[in-house]
Design a protein that fits this description.
alpha/beta; TIM Barrel; five-stranded antiparallel beta sheet; 16 strands; about 15% strand; binds 2-acetamido-2-deoxy-beta-D-glucopyranose; chitin degradation; signal; glycosidase; hydrolase; endochitinase activity
Length: about 500
């Protein structure tokens, strides 16, 4: 997403519309912000004629604020950030990034089977019989068992897997149907609570309408899936969406709002290598910034177009953008300097840079570190900035915050995820799902051995304690079929 994402898009935007300060000389020649009124209207109308629309809005039923974090499956390698390293104490959702799609058929697929399903962690058996889930996805399930308020969503797309038109299949109803059935299979097999789609970016009316149709059809299919399992807790759908005009211009926002559980606004990358001066990259308000972007303005845009406040989630960056050879903030720069994993991008945990001075801007609600000798400036969020953003979420009755991405956070009091969670106050504790009777994995069907799976539908077996997992698996050495019933699983989910 999120990093490379923006280079082109915001370059475009900066040149085109939003980057132009309202009262600057020459602004008269700017394209009006609302020039696409007609386009937006067209999206809405066309969507309304879709066989599946309009539908009653899908409420999100949360009982507190949400605090979401992206877990990236490549984080288990060089970054050595494992699922066990996630501090879930203030998290309500983990967005598991990324899964991919076949651009022709729409088929959903995983991107790294070793990371997702195969890596053995402490406690994983090499000898247990059957077909079992390991890897980071099994760890997600264990986190859910230990934290019943924690929801996990499988995230599709992102900048990388939006390339080469990977999500443009949304204009094809057959491909949408394929995506939906295969994505739900991945959800059921691997034990997720929903689907997140990060489509960067629909670039025509047809793609915007196709995306909204995909979400609407996915909503129907997930509700049917829940009903087929006797599940009363809805599966969730989120979309990571752009804070910049060129990224959101084709989104039929009101129609999407009916089907989404949450909007995750990617409220960062407002400045970077493509900019002409160093500047804040995730400022809440305009302040003195020159980019023309502010999170407040983006949120107001979405709300004005029909997004529900109760579904609006503000993204915050757990990384900074570097600007090299600069005399300070909003000054020309040359190059972006080094970074934690790529040039110009620093993990929050590597910030501030040594021997630099941190400045927190009150008006824009943003921060940066700078050293006049090294002349390196890095724009990033400090705990104070994030606390202020979370307070804004509270003041405006928004749903919560989202963070990209968890491996880059600090621990303890300096953690931005924890700071956000604390400021938001009461967090959503509605229950996740544990029952996946249709999973192809024995250990997911048996809820890690906490329930007995059986091929008879009249079984009254008592639940098997967790310690006897391998015993219970051995008892059903014939692969259980989808008729398996989870005796205690139902009870657990309904408690
Ligand atoms: C069109 O733009 C104007 C000016 O910003 C705004 O007041 C109006 O609500 C917009 N109409 C639609 C349908 O978005
Ligand atoms: C935030 O956005 C609202 C709506 O556009 C606007 O009225 C308000 O002035 C903005 N706040 C700041 C500090 O820019
Ligand atoms: C800037 O960094 C250099 C080392 O690169 C250090 O010697 C100097 O004290 C720093 N300046 C400030 C103001 O901290």
């Amino acid at each position: 997403m999120h990093l490379f994402a923006t280079t082109l898009v915001f370059l475009q935007a900066a040149l085109a519309v939003v980057g132009r300060p309202k009262n600057a000389p020459g602004s008269v020649m700017a394209r009006p912000d609302q020039y696409n009124n007609a386009t937006t209207q067209l999206c809405e109308d066309r969507f309304r004629y879709h066989p599946n629309g309009p539908r009653p809005p899908h409420p999100n039923h949360r009982d507190g604020k949400v605090n979401m974090g992206y877990f990236v499956n490549w984080g288990i390698y060089a970054r050595n950030f494992q699922p066990q390293d996630i501090d879930v104490s203030k998290l309500t959702h983990i967005l598991y990034a990324f899964a991919d799609t076949d651009p022709t058929t729409g088929a959903a697929m995983l991107t790294d089977l070793y990371a997702d399903q195969e890596k053995h962690y402490d406690g994983d058996s090499w000898v247990e019989p059957g077909t079992n889930l390991y890897g980071a996805m099994k760890q997600m399930y264990l986190l859910k068992q230990a934290n019943r308020g924690l929801k996990t969503l499988l995230s599709f797309g992102g900048w990388t897997y939006s390339q080469a038109g990977h999500l443009n299949f949304v204009t094809d109803p057959t491909a949408r149907a394929t995506f939906i059935s295969t994505a739900i299979t991945l959800l059921e097999d691997n034990g997720f609570d929903g689907i997140d789609i990060d489509y960067e970016y629909p670039s025509s009316v047809e793609q915007g309408v196709g995306f909204a149709s995909l979400l609407a059809e996915l909503r129907i299919a997930l509700d049917a899936h829940a009903a087929s399992k006797g599940d009363t807790v809805p599966y969730q759908i989120t979309a990571a969406v752009s804070a910049g005009y060129s990224g959101y211009q084709y989104l039929p926002i009101a129609a999407m709002d009916d089907t989404l559980t949450y909007w995750n606004l990617m409220a960062y990358d407002y400045s970077g290598s493509w900019s002409t001066v160093s500047d804040d990259h995730a400022n809440l308000f305009p302040g003195k910034t020159t980019t023309g972007f502010s999170t407040n303005a983006s949120i107001q845009y979405y709300l004005g177009q029909g997004a529900s406040k109760s579904k609006m989630v503000m993204g915050t960056p757990l990384y900074g953008h570097g600007f090299a050879n600069t005399d300070g903030i909003r000054k020309p720069f040359s190059g972006v300097g080094a970074g934690s994993w790529e040039d110009g991008i620093w993990d929050y945990k590597d910030l501030p840079r040594p021997y630099s001075t941190v400045t927190e801007e009150r008006d824009s609600v943003a921060a940066y570190c700078y050293n006049a000798t090294t002349r390196l400036l890095v724009s990033y969020d400090t705990p104070k900035v994030v606390a202020r953003k979370a307070a804004y979420v509270n003041q405006n009755d928004l749903a919560g915050t989202m963070h990209w991405e968890l491996s880059a956070d600090k621990k303890g009091a300096d953690s931005l995820v924890l700071t956000s969670g604390k400021t938001l106050g009461k967090l959503d504790k509605t229950k996740n799902h544990l029952s996946y009777p249709g999973s192809k994995f024995d250990n997911i069907r048996s809820q890690m051995g906490t329930v007995v799976t059986t091929t008879t539908t009249t079984s009254t077996s008592t639940p098997t304690p967790p310690s006897s997992m391998s015993t219970s698996t051995a008892q059903t050495s014939a692969p259980p079929t989808t008729e398996s019933i989870l005796v205690a699983g139902k009870a657990l989910d309904k408690e």
